[in-house]
Amino acid sequence: MQTIIKIFISTALSISLLSSCNKYLDVVPDDVATLESAFANANETQAYLFGCYATMQALTDIRRNAGFTTSGEVMFPYPLQDQTTLGGGGGDAGFSIMRGIQNSANPLLNYWDGYNMGINMWQAIRKCNIFLENVHIPLDLPEFQRKRWAAEAKFLKAYFHYWLIRMYGPIPIVDVNLPVNASIEDVRIKQQPVDSCFNYVVHLLDEAIVDLPPVIQNLAAEQGRISSTIAKAVKAEVLATAASPLFNGNRDYAAMKRKDGTQLFSQAYDESKWQLALTACREAIDAAAAAGANLYQLRLSGGIVHMSDETRRMLTIQGAFVDSWNPEQIWTLNPQFGWQYMASPRVTADAAANVFAVYSNFSVPIGQSELFYSKNGVPISEDRTFDYKNRYKLQAGDDSHAYYIKKGYTTVKGNFNREPRYYADVAFDGSVWFGSGNLDDNNPNYVNAVNGFAAPPDQLRYNATGYWAKKLVPYQTTFGQTSVQQNYSWPFMRLTGLWLLYAECQNEVNGPGGDALLWIDRVRERAGLKGVAESWSQYSTSPNKYNTKDGLRAIIHQERRIETAFEGQAGWDLRRWKELQNVLSTPLQGWNVFNRTTEGYYQLRIAQQTVFGVRNYLYPIQDYDLLTNPNLVQTLYW
Fold first, then answer.
1. Are 249 and 242 contacting, i.e. CB atoms less than 8 angstroms apart?
2. Which residues form the RagB/SusD domain (predicted)?
3. Fewest beta carbons within 10 Å, which of 2, 132, 312, 560?
4. Is the dihedral of CA 512, 383, 313, 464 positive or negative?
5. Around Cβ 581, how many Cβ atoms within 10 Å?
């Protein structure tokens, strides 16, 4: 091990890939005998496998997820005078990237080295390799179990590589750990072309799928472990990512080559990649159906006083995400979501009086709120019946919106005549909040932001835009002098997201002539909307939009962003589509939340300036790693 450490000091990548055992697993000292004891029997071997799962579980902290923090869906208010008091502790690193302070000297969300809210993925991959190299040792481990556990480790290793590819593009492939006597040159491994990286991940997933169970039978003991259904769904997403503009013939990275001249990004667009993704999506959908996946049906707790059909639909839309382990959730991870108090407004006097109960810092920009459709199921800027020009004018809540907006409360016209997912996912000044101790939607709680519930005087625990990610807070959660959270496990994939991924692939392969509309409409039906063809034909200023490949692509992209809003998915989608630069090309806006008059509150203001260019689509490798491993090349434009 001392020899290894001497080699590791010579290269930062090697430190990441081959660091000493006790750095990543506290129970394993630096000697071979202890490594052997870790695989002495089935129980010890399973414990080591759970250690491989640990990195995956840590990814449920959405502050670590670029798909959430850099998506433009949510911002974190700046400046914060006391980050430590707020529990920040550097946890806002991902949000800071949108402000343009990413750098190569000390990268934010550094998953290469494990700094600034990143996790060292090379160590996680090394754990998986150690497991695969030693899972044959325990004599009391049945062969069928050995195969399954090895398949789980292969899946995890594939996913960790995939996570790195999405962030850095071309990466080294670490299929096996290097031997103790590896030379310095062997340790200084090179990045592989993007296509090779994706092919490796798919190959590992294919190997894993064969030996994984289609469903987890023993939920009490094994809930959260990987099934073949999950692996097939991930394979579909991997292939769709490989087929997307960021990685498929991206001329922006034509100059990114290895030092031996190897082209790291293929410059030829390959439509067949979409066909591979389409086939994988279909297989994943069929596997999910066979495993019992279906749309969520609302499961209510006791104490309901009155619930309208409108409220029931909103809770069904929200419950598909926050009601853990329901049949719509294809892949859910065990750790509980711990940031509800960041996503919730203060809807009771108790919550307003206790500033430590609710922070509200996850602030939804107005641009994100305007992404959701009108009640007619088309973009509000396209709806012929929606008063888009006057959407910031004031209007009082009326009878027809009584279950969405407090009757008689003055808010902006843009909050009226919107689709049910808007009211299920987003809270705003004047919006009804079913829950938080009040289960009567005839006399509900509501958001009273103008009177200070959005922004307390300390200017620390506040929402910077006047919009909240309501989707992330179950109705059973209550904040106040004594807070009670309805905790839930974080879903990584839902059935509706898979349907929309299939629709996307269908359109890319077959255009409007395929069955893409069928799958989009299944998602829309649950949301209380008419089908795409009927909605656009009747209400859109572009009634034939869905009849062209480009038009249908725009519809699918917006539908997917709405359906998976705040789930840590949009940021990844916008990157692979090369559309994140458009979303972040203008400042994030909100209302004048510290003003205590209705007229003063509803003044548009810049909540945060954003900086995002072509170089931000992929992350920089830390400069020190390039110095210690001269075979690495920096991400282009950094």
1. no
2. 356-638
3. 2
4. positive
5. 14
Q: With a threshold of 0.70, does the pTM exceed it?
A: yes
pLDDT in tens, 55-89: 999 999 999 999 999 999 999 986 544 443 333 44
- Which pLDDT tens digit goes with each residue over 617-632? 999 999 999 999 999 9
Q: Are 475 and 435 in contact (CB under 8 A)?
A: yes
Closest to 36 in 3D by CA, of 151, 166, 133, 128:
133
> What pLDDT is recorded for position 356?
86
190: which 2 tokens? Answer: 């090179």
Cβ neighbors of 371 (< 8 A, separation 6 or more) are 558, 561, 562, 565
Closest by CA to 42, choosing from 140, 144, 146, 152, is: 140
Beta strands in 483-593 (DSSP E): 489-494, 588-590
Which sign does the torsion angle of CA 606, 607, 608, 610 carry? Answer: negative
List all residues 6 or more positions away from 567 whose beta carbon is below 8 Å from its beta carbon: 68, 321, 491, 494, 497
Residue 613: CB atoms within 10 Å:
11
Angle between helices 228-243 and 272-290 (to 10 degrees): 160
Question: What is the spatial distance between Cα 298 and Cα 294, in angstroms, rounded to a whole number?
Answer: 12
DSSP code string of 575-614 = HHTT-HHHHTSS-EEE--TT--SHHHHT--EEEE-----G
The mean per-residue pLDDT over the stretch 183-205 comes to 95
CB neighbours of 179 closer than 8 A, spacing ≥ 6?
none
Rounded CA separation 305/96 (Å): 43
Report the CATH architecture of 2-27+45-137+144-292+620-628: Alpha Horseshoe (1.25)
Please give the torsion angle defined by the CA atoms of residues 119, 120, 125 and 131, in that order, rounded to the nearest 10 degrees. Answer: -90
pLDDT at 423 over 50: yes
Among 583, 576, 572, smallest CA distance to 611 is for: 583
Q: CA-CA-CA-CA torsion for 163, 166, 167, 169, nearest 10 degrees?
A: 120
- Per-residue confidence (pLDDT) for residue 79, from 0 to 100: 55
Amino acid (1-letter code) at residue 551: G
For residue 457, what are the contacts with CB-CB under 8 A and spacing of at least 6? none
* Helix 42-58 × helix 143-168 angle, to 10°: 20
Cα 609 to Cα 239: distance, rounded to the nearest angstrom: 34
| Residue the block writes with tokens 């909540």 | 607
